[in-house]
Amino acid sequence: MKLLLVEDDRKVATAIVRGLEAEGFHVEVAFDGDDGFWMASEGSYDLVILDIMLPGRNGYRVCADLRDAGNWTPILMLTAKDGDLDEAEALDTGADDFLTKPFSFPVLVARVRGLLRRAGGRNPVPVEVGDLRLDPGQRRVWRGEQEIALTSREFDVLEFLVRRAGQVLSKREILAGVWEFDFDGDPNIVEVYVRRLRRKIDEPFDQHTLATVRGSGYRIATDEP
Amino acid sequence: MKLLLVEDDRKVATAIVRGLEAEGFHVEVAFDGDDGFWMASEGSYDLVILDIMLPGRNGYRVCADLRDAGNWTPILMLTAKDGDLDEAEALDTGADDFLTKPFSFPVLVARVRGLLRRAGGRNPVPVEVGDLRLDPGQRRVWRGEQEIALTSREFDVLEFLVRRAGQVLSKREILAGVWEFDFDGDPNIVEVYVRRLRRKIDEPFDQHTLATVRGSGYRIATDEP
DNA sequence: GGGTACGTTCAGCAGAGGTTCAGCTTCCAG
DNA sequence: CTGGAAGCTGAACCTCTGCTGAACGTACCC
């Protein structure tokens, strides 16, 4: 799957590229609207992620120009926080979906997957560790036969950990992978969610899937060494 | 794995290169920003470690210039101690992670591994000496089938020794390789950790993997001469 | 407009694990 | 054989990390 990201803020761009590549996508980047338009026209991408505020021509124009030129690649627009208008305008100019900044990584991935699926791709695959099963598409979790109710954030944290089962993930990494890019709060929040997850997925079942590695982070226990 | 280190302080550069090569990376060095940019552009590196204070063009510029040129090699920036601003600016210019000086060697290695992993590389490879096996990603240790619980520091010391199995490492070297670069405590701490490791990895198994070389340091015994 | 669900912050606590220290043992030179 | 240096060891000390319950604020829902 080849994606094009059009985004001038390097910080955001880097984060998105890294994350999406880790999810298995191939991502190329344009830093302004003109490059973006040109690359989207020439290259054959499965999806374009398009910031609105851009040097050169802005996101709306890029989107409209592409559609005028007969290019119907799915487009996901990144709109600014305050602009309520943005959404409507984004869809008017031919975008397929939009996402309001700031957004967290799982949300972006979900949207990208959603668009690709609607465009004819396949459903996200359930993930399993031992008898713990997550379905990212439905955002539901089971331990054996028993379904477990998680909040949205709890699910994101758990999915992040389960997808990297066995690896030690630091609070830093978890924070960066699950929260908004500009989140600047207390890392203790990770501890709080770990606590809540343990209370829901481990304690009622007398398990200890979610282990602390003091000084390094957390790890989902797997059977394999 | 081929890394590029851009660092003008030769003493620091040498120390880092030695260490990373012992970890199994192939490291090349540039001593100023211009060389660094040129090498990063021409050579194909898996990761660039970039100091900020550089003659020629500084780290930020090198980073920004690389990104502008469409080069998305993961970049780890080394920022000065006091600069809180540095972090933000490093990420703004497109760095993937940063590390504040002074840092300890295991931390540097962990960050490098983390970046390579996020960039889609393989998981860190387990290390083995005889029937002693360490998995750096999981931070777990086994002797044969039996898992051994180590603290964070114990693990760092053991990993440092095992990766240099067969070599004699002085207390000075171990101190420099595992503790923060500016650690200024009693070198006896190394003896204390050697003692703890022996008690955990050798004594219960009637082995003597961790040998003292009086007057010189310690060595992990290997089968090969 | 009141209530609920959820995310986030806070502060107190407990204990793990790091560092230091003082006394002991071993090794080697003379 | 003897003294000193290097290394070993157990225990004390103490910091800092992670755990936890509760409070707070906000968005959404009835």
Give a topology summary:
2 copies of one chain form a homodimer.
Chain A: E1 2-6, H1 10-22, E2 26-30, H2 33-42, E3 47-51, H3 59-68, E4 75-79, H4 84-92, E5 97-100, H5 105-118, E6 127-129, E7 132-135, E8 140-143, E9 146-148, H6 152-163, H7 171-178, H8 188-202, E10 210-213, E11 217-220
Parallel strand pairs in A: 1-2, 1-3, 3-4, 4-5
Antiparallel strand pairs in A: 6-7, 7-8, 8-9, 10-11
Chain A binds a DNA duplex (30 and 30 nucleotides) through residues 151-154, 185-186, 188-189, 191-195, 212, 214-215.
Question: Could you describe the 3D structure shown?
Answer:
The structure is a homodimer of 225-residue chains. Chain A is of the alpha/beta class and 225 residues long. Chain A is built from eight helices and eleven strands. Chain A has helices at 10-22, 33-42, 59-68, 84-92, 105-118, 152-163, 171-178, 188-202, and strands spanning 2-6, 26-30, 47-51, 75-79, 97-100, 127-129, 132-135, 140-143, 146-148, 210-213, 217-220. A five-stranded parallel β-sheet of chain A has the order 2-1-3-4-5, sandwiched between helices. A four-stranded antiparallel β-sheet of chain A has the order 6-7-8-9, with helices on one face. Chain A has a two-stranded antiparallel sheet with strand order 10-11. In chain A, a hairpin with a 3-residue loop joins strand 10 (210-213) and strand 11 (217-220). In chain A, helix 2 packs parallel to helix 3 and helix 6 (152-163) crosses helix 8 (188-202). The mean pLDDT of chain A is 83.
